[in-house]
Amino acid sequence: GDPEAGEMGLAAVPGRQAAFRQGLAAAVQYARAVGCPRIHLMAGRVPPGTDLAAVASEMETTFIENLRYAADLLAQEDMIGLVEPINNRITDPSYYLNTPHQAAAILEKVGRPNLKLQLDLFHCQIMDGNLSRNLETYFPLIGHIQIAQVPGRHEPDSPGELNFPYIFELLESLGYTGYVGCEYAPKGDTLEGLGWLRSYWESRGLQHGGTSKA
C-alpha cells in the first residue's frame, strides 16, 4: 500500500484489490530471489473516517477473496502465506486483524492449506493473554512465531510479563520446528541485546549456535 496515505497492507481493504495483487507479485519476486518460502499478507487498516462495524463484513469478504487469490499464486511457487493479528490497543488502533481467534476463523473460511498463522506473542499477550492455551489451540495453524517482551517490546529477558524460557520449552514440547522471529526493539546495542539467546542455549546444555556439547 501507500504508507504516506496511512496504508499498512491491503489484503482486507475494499477497493484496493488490484493494488494488493501488484504488491503480491512484487513480493513473490523478492521472495524467490532470496529463497524465502513465507510471505506476510498484511490485512491493512480500517479506512480513515470509517466505523469498523459498518465495514467489517465487506472487509472480511475482501480479505477472504484476496487470501484465496494469494494462496493459489503462492502454491505455484511452493510458498506459504501468513496472516498476523496486530493488537489495536497499543500498536495500531485501526488495524483490521487483531486476535488469533479472528485470524483462525478467517483461515478456516479461506480453506487453503498453504495459508498459516503468524503468531506474534507480543500482540497476542496484549489482546488476549492465555498464551499457553492459545499456543496449544492454534498450533496446527502456526506457520511462524514472533517474540517481544510485554509491554516494552524489548528483548525477551527485559523486565515484563512474559516468561520466555517457559514459552520456548512449550514450543519445543509442541513440536515447533520453524523460526522464531525477534520482532523487538533492542534497548541498546543489538549484539549485546542477543545475550539472552546465549544464556538460553547454555541453560539447555547447548553451545553458541545451538549445537550440543555431547
Mean model confidence by pLDDT: 95
Task: Assign the CATH architecture.
Answer: Alpha-Beta Barrel
Taken in chain order, the helices and strands follow as HEHEHEHHEHEHH
Inertia-based shape: globular
CATH class categorisation: Alpha Beta
Share of β-strand residues: 5-15%
- CATH topology: the name is TIM Barrel
Strands across the major sheet, in which order? 1-2-3-4-5
**Which class of secondary structure composition applies to the elements?**
alpha/beta
Number of domains: 1
Largest sheet: 5 strands, parallel
Distance between the termini: 50 Å
Helix content: 40-55%
CATH evolutionary superfamily: Divalent-metal-dependent TIM barrel enzymes
Query: Can you tell me the residue ranges where pLDDT is under 50 for at least 5 consecutive residues?
Result: none
Number of E strands: 5
Number of helices: 8
C-alpha-based Rg, rounded: 18 Å
Keywords: Isomerase
GO biological process, one term: glyoxylate metabolic process
GO molecular function: hydroxypyruvate isomerase activity
InterPro entries: Sugar_Epim/Isomerase (IPR050417), Xyl_isomerase-like_sf (IPR036237), Xyl_isomerase-like_TIM-brl (IPR013022)
Structure description:
The protein has 214 residues and is an alpha/beta fold. It has eight helices and five strands. The protein has a five-stranded parallel β-sheet with strand order 1-2-3-4-5.
